[in-house]
Amino acid sequence: MDIYSFIDIILFVTSLTNWEEFIQSKHPDAHLLQTAAWARLKSGFGWQAETVQSADAGAMVLFRPLPLGVSIAYLPRGPVPATISALSALLPQLDSLCRSRRAAFLKIEPDIRGDPAAAESLGRLGFRPSPNPVQPPRTIKIDLRGSEDEILARMKPKTRYNIRLAMRHGVTVSASEDLAAFERLMNTTGARDAFAVHAGTYYQKAFAEFGPHRGVELMLAGYEGEALAGLMVFAQGRRAWYLYGASSDAHREVMAPYLLQWEAIRWARARGCAEYDLWGIPDADPETLEKEFSARQDGLWGVYRFKRGFGGLLWRSTGAWDRVYNPLLYGLYRLVAAGRPGNLG
Predict the structure, then answer these.
(1) What's the pLDDT tens digit per position in 152-203?
(2) Which H or E element spans position 106?
(3) What pTM was computed for the model?
(4) Every domain of the chain and the residues it spans
């Protein structure tokens, strides 16, 4: 390692340490994807993280280097706080940073509820709607306030039944560090449901980065000595997120994923979380979701039927927006990215 690389590492660590202090002191309920731990996770997989701050507002931006010294910039679920006014205040710094990194464009996916007023404001700031989101804009959020019985009462009857059925069958759920078992489950689920999964090293690093502050729990559901399902649940402030989950093809009749999800909800409540985000459902209006969920299995439709049973509320962010610095390269990106949602992730 040369002296310049060593200096870069020191600056990166120092910057993220300062950012972590900023988040915990001023915005403890910031979105998970704006944390220093998330920046460290993504830095191990081709991204470079930088932060900007202005008074009490800030943003963690990820850069993906491209050939010829250019890059693309991505602001996931930021800024903090998640407001249009914070974004407006940070915009001069964001522009300066992106231009210094020769970014072709900046993609943002604010943690802001989607409505016409938000869209109009983003347009006035010079952003354009992007047809290529990274994260799913629509999700289901479960209210964790109240007693366990009250949370269960808000679920669909079939979901409550399946949770209790798993208990009667003797399914057990426990915290685990068996990331190899989780990787096997993820690969099985990816092959069965035809979606891409991360390499095992990704889950290992996620567990390592969030683990020291108990910001993550790996939970496995077992039956007759075999791991049937697993998930990784993350927490930051008073919010929790179900980002990664998988199940095997064996003993599906014992409904292990239902009890597993319930225990993850209980873990989030024990940490003081008031909201549990099920992370990602089809981006369709409520009427279409209810009309088509029983017949469709493609894309996120395959998990929507499972998630809807837990009694949460539909929530849609304002989606993905792009701020263009190099129109030629941006046009090329649009051609390459067409039909490939999540292409930056």
Answers:
(1) 999 999 999 999 999 999 999 999 999 999 999 999 998 887 778 999 999 9
(2) strand 103-109
(3) 0.92
(4) 3-134+318-337, 138-316
